């Protein structure tokens, strides 16, 4: 499988990683969970170096000062187990429900013991269900153990434009939790032909509220599975008409109208489940409507 690899390194800290990434610039691949190495990593004369980051201490999860910090090499199952323990008393249940649902739909149980959160967010494989979830939640990523922070949405844009610096390593994912002044609710649904299949479409929604007035301040929707980069829609401006009146006082009706807005902006491509575009559009609208209604109700 790795016959073409000439050099294998296992740094213990970010300084060692940076030294190796500079020395072998353009030649290395990062190894974490390793689930995609056989399918997507093709050793060659120009790509003959593996840098294994599993010994860098990036496998920790913590909640401090209202920030949920997830290390890049935390596996999907490790995150699931942490969230089950942490949310068992109802802590931040509606805020983190989309993250929990997305994790539980990724691949199969054995593979979730290997797939890492960082790998799922950065490599954007067909089974990457986390990107739209973290994007709509306004998550941030920490690069090189704190040398730089950026929003995950901006990081996706840099992937899309091929402007990611290979020497910058995603080391943590940061999610700001509800603080009593503001609150947010999330929803997630994955549509696939089988339980363990890649998503034909997954939909993530995040609604931010002012806790004092219980009023909606931001509504974001993300659609993944239809291309390498998820599509993100800010629906806040559509919740209120230009006249200043709400689209509808009924959240379910409002959700259906907002789904119509999304479908008018969104062209479905690369469909895996159906060859009939009209059928997929109908399915997509129903999924989007239900997920928006869940966060508004």
TrEMBL record:
Entries under InterPro entries matching the protein: Diverse_Substr_Oxidored (IPR051312), FAD-bd_PCMH (IPR016166), FAD-bd_PCMH-like_sf (IPR036318), FAD-bd_PCMH_sub2 (IPR016169), Mopterin_DH_FAD-bd (IPR002346)
Annotated ranges, domain FAD-binding PCMH-type: 1-180
Top-level taxon in the UniProt lineage: Bacteria
Range of residues in the leader sequence: none
Family annotation (PROSITE patterns): FAD_PCMH
One Gene Ontology molecular-function label: FAD binding
Protein name: FAD-binding PCMH-type domain-containing protein
